[in-house]
């Protein structure tokens, strides 16, 4: 009698012991949880923190995480991008175990932290994959959640859209993978207290063959760069990208670069050249501590009636221990 009740409970929660596709203790093979181009329209802001103490360490022995972070954050460039409806996808087949919707999208501040206490995940979905495996999807856009409790989903099923509900400082999806109730790092398939990997490509982790080629580990990344007529601001950039394209009579022309996961000691260098003798440079002092997000810019104010027509070119570099670890170039052309 007790055995029958346990079986019924497992079936009710979606862990069907008679369904071999779900009832397996083998590691999951996860697809990308966001319908985006990884490294171009979305980026990994934070990995799982595998350090058991107050220090931080990601799976690749880097610092692209924060203390006690139990998931992976896939970020968009701005809330404006999230407003277009970037889909959140089931990473593997399973049964929806829980959902929440209706929490507003708003960036976290001192006031909102208390409003989301015990609901920091915001709008989200939990999927039971059987064999003790489950995935949780957080910070989804208010009103976007399509999944329902008990629903069977396939890998790639649309669950809703990326947002910034709950405790979120930027538009992103937080994905947590668990096995038997314990958080698992999807980049290694191991629990959070495992050793880091000096070669992040040595272990495919839980990702399937569609994700592995797209992922390139980076502890320091330039996620956006270009020309603008306004001095960039990090908070505004999270709202709408912070870009106001320059014109022939803009009061200033500025080249900027937005970066994530910089390390203490990094130096950010910008160089801009253009027609009419246009030239501007900037070099930061070595950063005193790690920076989850950072913005740098260089430019000039207009001192004549209009900017000279032609192509303006800017280059941004992150220099670490004397070597360039990432570099991007962008241009802006002003027609005659």
Protein model, in words:
With about 325 residues, the protein is mainly beta. It has two domains: about 15-190, Glucose Permease (Domain IIA) (Distorted Sandwich); about 220-335, Immunoglobulin-like (Sandwich). The protein has helices at about 1-10, 80, 110-115, 235-240; strands at about 45, 70-75, 85-90, 95-100, 125-130, 135-140, 150-155, 160, 170-180, 180-185, 190, 220-230, 250-260, 265-275, 280-285, 290-300, 310-320, 325-335. The strands form four sheets. Strands 1, 2, 4, 5, 6, 7, 9, 10 and 11 form a nine-stranded antiparallel sheet that branches. A hairpin with a 5-residue loop joins strand 14 (about 265-275) and strand 15. The longest helix is centred in the first third of the chain and has 11 residues, at about 1-10. It is globular, with a radius of gyration of 23 Å.
Q: Overall pLDDT, averaged?
A: 91
CATH topology grouping of the largest domain: Glucose Permease (Domain IIA)
Radius of gyration: 23 Å
The level 1 CATH classification of the largest domain is Mainly Beta
Q: What string gives the helices and strands in order?
A: HEEHEEHEEEEEEEEHEEEEEE
CATH homologous superfamily heading of the largest domain: Glucose Permease (Domain IIA)
Structural class category: mainly beta
Kindly, what is the distance between the CA atoms of the first and last residues, rounded to a whole number of angstroms? 85 Å
CATH architecture of the largest domain: Distorted Sandwich
Q: Percent range for helical residues?
A: under 10%
Largest sheet properties:
9 strands, antiparallel
The global form is: globular
Q: How many beta-strand elements?
A: 18
Strand content: 35-45%
Unreliably modeled segments: 1-24
Question: How many domain regions?
Answer: 2
Q: What is the count of DSSP helices, taking H or I runs of 4+ residues?
A: 4
